[in-house]
Structure formats: structure tokens, C-alpha cells
From TrEMBL:
Entries under PROSITE patterns matching the protein: HTH_TETR_2
Record domain HTH tetR-type: where: 21-81
Portion annotated as DNA-binding: 44-63
Protein known as: TetR/AcrR family transcriptional regulator
Organism of provenance: Telluria mixta
Chain segments carrying region Disordered: 1-23
Keyword terms, alphabetized: DNA-binding, Transcription, Transcription regulation
Pfam families: TetR_C_7, TetR_N
InterPro entries per UniProt: Homeodomain-like_sf, HTH-type_TetR-like_transc_reg, HTH_TetR, Tet_transcr_reg_TetR-rel_C_sf, TetR_C_Proteobacteria
């Protein structure tokens, strides 16, 4: 295309970097859907490419292999598992902070999405231990480490006494995710609401046990 003066017309449209970012997000959405539906073994780059409406070559421009793509999907959904880091000036009671930190205040759709990603991580890590190793080595999963850092920050602010952050972080992970990963999936909204309330009560007991502030039971 040329302008009236004979010079080449400037190419219009969005910058290439924007297009690349949008394609990457489309690939991640398609990969997430495929991994949840078909599992790691059943998902191929061809399936993801077809769902994302891109070529396999485009996928390999963003991800070295299927394992790297899986790790990127997990990393993309970490916000559904832990809302960390917290705002530096946050001054809520500790229980309220933990409710937000562990995403116990999300809506029904987000809760279902969290359950799907937690089940995916758990199932595939058992089936493919090397995949689990890769997720931790690349820090696609670092929930425990992030929780340790938060406990240390709260201790430095004088809001909590932490004798061993690693032990406390492990206890909190068991309290919350032990309940969020039941053997039987909860289909009814009232059952999910009751589970959230039980987790909150467990957190109250934890805070009372370590004599932390902000753990008074709610009316």
C-alpha cells in the first residue's frame, strides 16, 4: 500500500509486543482448559494450538515444551491459591488478613477455578513426580515460601510471635488446603460455604494457640 506521494504507507495496528502478549494469554487460556479437561498426559501442543487458534510454531516461540507451558499455567493461577504479598501498610486483624491471604472471600466462580487448579496440581504431581520437581525448581509453585516470608514480616511488625516460620507455614497450609482438597468434591453452594466457615474457625484456633492478636471469635 502506498500514499498519494508514492511513499510506502505506514503500517497501522497495535504494536507487535501487544500482539505477542495477547497470543501468549490465548495460549495459556487454552492450555489451562486442556490440562484441566484432559490432564497433562492427554494434552498435546497440537490440541492447545487448535484451541488457541495459533500454530504449533507460535506455541514454541513462547514455551520450550509442554512442561514449561504447564508451569506457566500454574504460575498464572497462583493468585487463586494465596494472595501474597500483602499490602505493606495493611493493619487488619490477623484473622481478617488470613481470610484474604488464603482467598476465603472469593466468589463461587473463583472458588471453582481454585478447586480446579488445586486438583490439577495435586493429581499431576502424583502421576508425574518429575513435573512436581520442575514446578518447584522454576518457582512456579512457591506458596509455602511466600507464606514463610509473610510470617516473618508479621513477626517483624510485632503482630505475631513466630518461633519457626517453616513449621508455622506448614501448619497453615495443612489447615487450609487440607480442607480445600477433600476426597469428595463439594457441588452445593451451602456445603462450600460451610467449608469456608470451618476453615476460618480453624484459623481462629491457630491464632489463639500462638496467642496472636485479632483472633477473637466473630459474633
Amino acid at each position: 500500500m502506498t500514499e498519494e506521494n508514492g511513499h510506502p504507507a505506514a503500517r497501522r495496528g497495535r504494536p507487535r509486543s501487544t500482539g505477542d502478549a495477547e497470543r501468549r494469554q490465548a495460549i495459556l487460556r487454552a492450555a489451562h482448559e486442556a490440562f484441566v479437561e484432559l490432564g497433562f498426559a492427554g494434552t498435546t501442543t497440537a490440541i492447545v494450538a487448535a484451541r488457541a487458534k495459533v500454530s504449533k510454531r507460535t506455541i514454541y516461540e513462547s514455551f520450550a515444551d509442554k512442561t514449561a507451558m504447564f508451569a506457566a499455567v500454574i504460575r498464572e493461577h497462583q493468585h487463586l491459591i494465596l494472595d501474597l504479598p500483602r499490602p505493606p501498610d495493611e493493619n487488619l486483624p490477623l484473622l481478617d488478613t488470613m481470610i484474604r491471604l488464603f482467598r476465603l472471600d472469593i466468589d463461587e466462580d473463583a472458588e471453582r477455578s481454585r478447586e480446579a487448579i488445586l486438583n490439577l496440581m495435586t493429581k499431576e504431581s502424583v502421576l508425574f513426580p518429575e513435573l512436581s520437581d520442575y514446578l518447584y525448581e522454576t518457582e512456579a509453585i512457591r506458596s509455602r515460601e511466600a507464606l514463610i516470608e509473610w510470617l516473618q514480616e508479621e513477626a517483624s511488625r510485632g503482630r505475631i510471635v513466630v518461633e519457626d516460620p517453616a513449621v508455622y507455614a506448614g501448619m497453615l497450609m495443612d489447615i487450609v488446603f487440607g480442607a480445600l482438597l477433600p476426597r469428595r468434591r463439594l457441588q452445593r453452594a451451602p456445603d462450600r460455604a460451610l467449608r469456608r466457615e470451618h476453615i476460618k474457625k480453624r484459623l481462629e484456633i491457630f491464632l489463639r494457640g500462638i496467642h496472636a492478636g485479632g483472633a477473637a471469635p466473630r459474633p
